[in-house]
C-alpha cells in the first residue's frame, strides 16, 4: 500500500547512518511557529490608547444633541451626533468644556475652515491619547460632531 506523501518516510543521514523519518514526526519535533495574530488583536495587544472608549467617557454634548451614535472600540471608540450650534459655536463649546476638565488644547493639531474644524486635547486621565473633536457644517442647518481618541 502506498502511503500519502505527507506520511512517507524521508531518509536522513545522521553520523553516516540512514534514518527514515516521516514528515509527521518531523513536524512533531520541529518547533511550531507562532500563528500570526489577527489585525484587531495586534492593535489591542499594542496597548490601547486609553482605558476608556469615547463612547463611555462621559463626554459633554450640547443640550440639543440628536442622532447620537456610539461606536465602541477598545481604547478609541467614536461618539457622533448633530447639533444646531454653528461651527464656531461648537468649537467654542468644546474648547470651554474640555479646558474646564483640565485638558489642554494641542494647537498644532487644530484646523478650522469654512466648513470643518478639528481640535485635539491632551491630558486625558491615565492616558497619552489625544481626544479629537471634529465638526462639519451640514449646509447651515446643523453641525455634525465626531469625538474619538487618537494616538498622539
Description:
- The chain contains three helices and nine strands; from the N terminus they run ββααββαβββββ.
- It has about 150 residues and is of the alpha+beta class.
- The protein has two domains: about 35 residues, no CATH class; about 100 residues, TATA-Binding Protein.
- Strands 3, 4, 5, 6, 7, 8 and 9 form a seven-stranded antiparallel sheet that branches. Strands 1-2 form a two-stranded antiparallel ribbon.
- A hairpin with a 3-residue loop joins β6 and β7.
- The longest helix is centred in the middle third of the chain and has 14 residues.
- The protein is globular and about 80 Å long.
Write the layout of secondary structure elements.
Elements: E1 9-14, E2 17-22, H1 23-29, H2 39-45, E3 66-71, E4 78-83, H3 87-100, E5 104-105, E6 111-112, E7 116-122, E8 130-137, E9 143-150
Strand coverage percent: 25-35%
Query: Which spans have pLDDT < 50 for at least 5 consecutive residues?
Result: 22-31, 37-51
N to C succession of SSEs: EEHHEEHEEEEE
What is the quaternary state of this protein? Answer: single chain
What form results from the Cα inertia axes? globular
- Provide the structure class: alpha+beta
CATH uppermost class of the largest domain: Alpha Beta
Helical amount? 10-25%
Distance between the termini: 65 Å
By DSSP, the count of extended strands is 9
CATH second-level architecture of the largest domain: 2-Layer Sandwich
Instruction: Specify Rg, calculated over alpha carbons.
Output: 28 Å
Task: Please sum up the structure shown.
This protein has 152 residues and is α+β, with helices and mostly antiparallel strands. It has helices spanning 23-29, 39-45, 87-100; strands spanning 9-14, 17-22, 66-71, 78-83, 104-105, 111-112, 116-122, 130-137, 143-150.
